[in-house]
Automatic annotation (TrEMBL):
Membrane topology, as annotated: Multi-pass membrane protein
Region (Disordered): 1-26, 446-469
Protein name as annotated: Amino acid transporter
InterPro entries cross-referenced by the UniProt entry: AA_transpt_TM
Family the entry assigns: Belongs to the amino acid/polyamine transporter 2 family.
Compositionally biased intervals (Acidic residues): 15-25
Highest taxon of source: Eukaryota
Keywords, in A-Z order: Membrane, Transmembrane, Transmembrane helix
TM stretches of this protein: 82-101, 128-149, 155-175, 187-207, 227-249, 261-282, 302-321, 342-363, 375-396, 408-431
Pfam families: Aa_trans (PF01490)
GO MF annotations in UniProt: L-amino acid transmembrane transporter activity
GO cellular component annotations of the record: membrane
Keyword Transmembrane helix among record annotations: yes
Length: 635
């Protein structure tokens, strides 16, 4: 019997998981029991997992890449809000996981989200939920291929083209996906668990040995974009729910599922909290994502090496969910489900190969780890881990929402859970889309180094290869006009309390001032309006070209560029960022810009861009020396 012929049974009475019949005799209706049927004589048996094996599978699926982004979340949100969200969303995920178990107990034929979607919304729901589950699995697979390439770039110091590393990761994961049962995946799960646990411990030791490199903050004054990007990383850390129906279908005793759920959530919440706090305490605002990059130049390589089983294994485990959905959808109710003939095995291999190729394409198309995690969380985890849990409960208790005070409370709770899921999805799609758009300059399908914190080897061109006119640029530009322009900008933007920092001009435009507005302060568009209203500036309407006129009749124009922090570098930029004073002008430390330049040059595909970046780097070296000495003399 196909899932289309399932007859919903009214009432709250539980369903016997062995027979699939209502225990209340008057309501007995034949139903489709499960996806695997009678396995007494089957070659391949699926319903064999014990509860502890289920728990290990869930830990390997969930506690992998998610934990690596949490320390950065503390840096983005602040210690207090981030901890409240990590613990709070963890407890909420425990409750929604329990509602999934209740839903499966009522409808034991469910093997995947498509089956659940059919119960909720008919044929349309089956297709919608099925496609969502498949896409989620493929995107997770892609994130693990991407992380594999980051790991290899880190260990080998970008030893070869990044696409070579993603291809190697694709091949390894494809081979590891050949087993068809979840029980066989538990062995990979155990290795994955030990791997990520050890790697995080090594990272904590590494950041502790380095000592505290920057301060930590209880709260952060940030904007919606950066705050919710951090929230999506927490949501991703609790994304195991997509596998719960499949695990319940392959358990020997599905009634033991809550034991596995509590095993997962207890470990998750404690591990996430301790790892995030310890790494953030020592790494501070400079913590990286993935967090393994914060362990120092040597230990981070060790940590990444130890993490190889979880980078590969967790990808295989997550990928198995999507592959099994397709396989069950094709062969449910046939002998192919349990056979080892050429068609059965060949179909499984072909499904795996197709899905992993798509995942490889995604990994190369979105080569920024944090952006990909944010997109996955927004589209899928927001609903699979949270929103749908509330929908399942509301379906099970239809018509009894206000039957008792307890039901009223649970009704309000589950409605709120649905709304939370919708909010996570909507806002998450906005911030992830914006992040991918802002990172559009990052090369896709490229050989460039995609490690988040590469050890940059700054180019050192010989002086004789430089244009002679650049020698004069090893000292700061003539200050008079620059100082007048800086004062005018400060007065125009924030009279009496300038919340801006100046950046020095570079080799290509010495009569150029870049100003960085603080995060959460005057945005670039508003800054343009303020400058347009000042008599000291001209703003070209079509191009927004902004220039300062010194008012003395001179024809010299100084171009003004207003930057927001994400357009300059990814690190936080606020009132605590260290600045120096040069001739009375507050100047952002050139070392920060130098670091950004050294990172960006590695990803340049055009030689002309590399050359101009190299000239800027040499100029900034010279400016740093002069600026530091000037600041010392003023002090």
């Amino acid at each position: 019997m196909s899932p289309d012929k399932v007859t919903p049974v009214p009432g709250p009475d539980p369903v016997d998981t062995e027979t699939g019949w209502e225990q209340d005799e008057k309501d007995q209706v034949p139903r489709y029991v499960d996806a695997f049927g009678d396995e007494s004589n089957a070659e391949v048996k699926y319903k064999t997992m014990e509860w502890w094996q289920t728990g290990m599978f869930m830990i390997a699926e969930s506690v992998s890449l998610g934990v690596l982004s949490l320390p950065k979340t503390l840096a983005q949100l602040g210690l207090a809000p981030a901890l409240i969200l990590i613990i709070g969303l963890g407890l909420l995920a425990t409750y929604t996981g329990y509602t999934i178990a209740q839903f499966h107990r009522r409808y034991p034929h469910i093997q995947n989200l498509a089956d659940a979607g059919f119960i909720l919304m008919g044929a349309f729901g089956r297709e919608l939920f099925g496609i969502g589950q498949l896409l989620f699995s493929i995107f997770i697979m892609g994130s693990h291929i991407l992380t594999f390439s980051v790991m290899m770039n880190t260990i080998t110091e970008h030893g070869t083209c990044t696409m070579v590393f993603t291809t190697v990761g694709f091949v390894i994961c494809m081979v590891g996906s050949l087993p068809r049962t979840m029980k066989n995946m538990t062995y990979i799960s155990c290795a994955s668990f030990g791997s990520i646990f050890t790697a995080v411990i090594i990272t904590m030791v590494g950041v502790g040995v380095q000592g505290r490199t920057s301060s930590i903050k209880a709260t952060i004054d940030t904007d919606l974009f950066h705050a919710f990007t951090a929230v999506t990383n927490i949501v991703f850390a609790y994304c195991a729910h997509v596998a719960f129906f499949g695990l319940l279908a392959e358990m020997r005793e599905p009634r033991d599922f809550p034991k596995a759920l509590y095993m997962l959530q207890t470990f998750e919440i404690i591990f996430y909290t301790v790892a995030a706090v310890v790494i953030y305490y020592y790494a501070g605002q400079t913590v990286t994502s993935p967090a393994l990059g914060s362990a120092g130049p040597v230990l981070k390589k060790v940590a990444y090496g130890i993490a190889i089983p979880t980078i590969v294994g967790a990808g295989i485990v997550n990928g198995h969910i999507g592959l099994k959905y397709i396989y069950v959808r094709l062969f449910r109710g046939t002998n192919r489900m349990h056979g080892r003939d050429f068609v059965s095995v060949g179909s499984w291999v072909a499904i795996g190969l197709t899905c992993w190729i798509i995942a490889w394409i995604i990994a190369d198309a979105i080569p920024v780890f944090s952006d990909l995690l944010s997109l996955i969380s927004s589209l899928f985890a927001s609903w699979f881990s949270y929103g749908l849990g509330g929908v399942y409960w509301l379906h099970l208790n239809w018509g009894r929402y206000f039957s008792s005070p307890r039901k009223i409370f649970l009704t309000v709770l589950n409605v709120c859970i649905v709304l939370i899921g919708g909010c996570m999805c909507g806002l998450g799609l906005y911030v992830s889309g914006k992040a991918i758009h802002d990172d559009a300059s990052t090369n896709t399908f490229s050989c460039a180094n995609n490690a988040e914190t590469p050890e940059p080897r700054a180019p050192t061109p010989r002086p004789k290869t430089l244009d002679p006119r650049h020698h004069a640029l090893l000292t700061p530009p003539p200050p008079a006009e620059i100082h007048r322009a800086a004062t005018a900008v400060a007065n125009a933007l924030t009279p009496g309390n300038p919340q801006i920092r100046a950046l020095p001009g570079a080799t290509r435009a010495t009569q150029d001032i870049d100003f960085v507005v603080l995060r959460g302060q005057t945005p670039p568009a508003a800054a343009r309006r303020l400058l347009r209203a000042s008599p000291h500036f001209t703003v070209e309407p079509r191009t927004n070209h902004t220039a300062f006129r010194d008012g003395t009749g001179t024809a010299v124009e100084i171009e003004i560029e207003i930057l927001a922090p994400p357009a300059l570098f990814r690190g936080p930029f606020d009132e605590d960022t260290e600045v120096i004073s040069v001739g009375g002008v507050r100047v952002l430390k050139p070392a920060l810009i130098l670091n950004a330049k050294c990172r960006s040059i590695l990803g340049r595909s055009r030689e002309a861009k590399k050359h101009t970046d190299a000239n800027d780097i040499i100029f900034l070296f010279g400016y740093s020396l002069c600026a530091e000495s000037g600041a010392a003399s003023e002090g």
